[in-house]
Amino acid sequence: MHVLRGKSLPSYLFFAGILLTTLTSCELFWSPKSPHGYVVPRPNKMILEKKLNEISGLCYLPEENAFLTIADNKQKVYRVTVDGKVSNYFEHDFAKQDDFEDVVKVDSSVYVLVSDGTIIDIKRKDSLLVTTKYHFPTTDDTNKNDFETLYYDSTSKGLIMLCKECEIESGKGIRTAYRFDIYTHQFDPAPYYTIPTKSVADKLKDGKIDFHPSAAAFNPIDKRLYILSSKGHLLISTDGKSKVLEVFRLNPTLYPQAEGIAFASNGDMYITNEAKLGKPTLLRIPYKSMTKKR
């Protein structure tokens, strides 16, 4: 029995109050809300092999119902099935060791993003791998740009890179996207679009955000672009350009370091986590078309 202002308070009410306070404070860090058709706080979890401890990037292969992925510190492209089985996609290493961040397949080319903005084009020719590097243009040798996100935009026929943090953004409160033309093999000289960080913060009740894009993919069902920010544990949906539509906080226990996102043809969402809290994971969030909008 606990006493409050001279009155006895049953123990179960006292502890219920503590629990309610705890849950309320947790709401500042993640939200039970989800995009329409999904229940993000209740994913199906698959443990991946140790060699994918630093898994980074995810690209859906509709013809195989599987994914391409890479690891930050490995020179291999991997195939991961929807139930989490891992194999080598290419028989050989594709490059010298570097800080690899994302992977996208378009037609016969597999593109790998390096953290400095370099794009590596990998093609299979007979039993060999032919690779070509395209370097992101910078104004000096310091290259203070950091990229983790690469995705294909069919409307622009280009690969889009999102800055995790780039020098051009300093003091402007924006995140910047750049386009790489897969036919001319040229980077557009000007940004493709920008996202004001304030427009992300405005979608949250507390208005506090840490927005550093770590992965992105288009949803084939609602046609929105979904952007992950591992730092800050955010899932953001946009119109594919500057307009922010919704923002959700992810539970850091389930999504400790979300570095990859992809959608299957049926709309199922898949998110990968690096082995920050134990083991790397592939999380499946099924799409349910009859789910009521929350």
TrEMBL record:
<keyword id="KW-1003">Cell membrane</keyword>
<dbReference type="GO" id="GO:0005886">
    <property type="term" value="C:plasma membrane"/>
</dbReference>
<protein>
    <recommendedName>
        <fullName>SdiA-regulated family protein</fullName>
    </recommendedName>
</protein>
<dbReference type="InterPro" id="IPR009722">
    <property type="entry name" value="YjiK/CarP"/>
</dbReference>
<dbReference type="Pfam" id="PF06977">
    <property type="entry name" value="SdiA-regulated"/>
</dbReference>
<keyword id="KW-0472">Membrane</keyword>
